[in-house]
Design goal:
Shape: globular
Order of helices and strands: EHEHEEHHHHH
Distance between the termini: 18 Å
Helix content: 40-55%
CATH topology of the largest domain: Glutathione S-transferase Yfyf (Class Pi), Chain A, domain 2
Number of strands: 4
Strand order of the largest sheet: 2-1-3-4
Structural class: alpha+beta
Number of domains: 2
CATH class of the largest domain: Mainly Alpha
Strand content: 5-15%
Length: 203
Amino acid sequence: MKIFEEKIAPNARRVRMFLAEKSISDIEYVQLDLQKGDNVSKEFKQMNPLAKIPVMELEDGSYLSESVAICRYFEAVKPSPSLMGESPLQQANIEMWQRRCELYFMNLIGMGFQHCSGFFADRMTPVPVWGQECVKDASKFMPLLNDHLANSEYIAGDTFSIADITAFVSIDFARVIKLRIGDEYTHLLRWYKQVNSRPSARA
């Protein structure tokens, strides 16, 4: 199997961390240059018409895109260690926090980057005012996470999950919009150091 990605992109890193946690290493990674437009080429759009990474090519020649969908595939292929939950309640709780971290943090960071940096100005119309609002809204999620982590070892409970991966790669990518964990967020800092010490953080 192959995964087409740009290693530094947060969604690509999310898949890499997920696979590293599951000790899945028999994957060929094909690097793309998003700034040069490798992902909007005719060839790539045949794999994913939305022109987004990562995309996985399966052994039968079919393609699977969307990072969480790729992770869900590998969760089914190798259920242990579980990163998406085992009991119905645990699965629902992880899904809830995964969605929160994605919708109210990761996506806002991405929009802040795209609209404030002009990185993709050749293929989209940046709206800096909108980007600035996204950065502000993303920053509001950090105190929410900090308060939550005062009573939870990991984001979705006592076990490490995809919700932690999503939040972690988002925080690292937030550097591009100059968003950092403030010293006052002691619980979030504790959690970040704990996740950063995992080998998968360097995947």
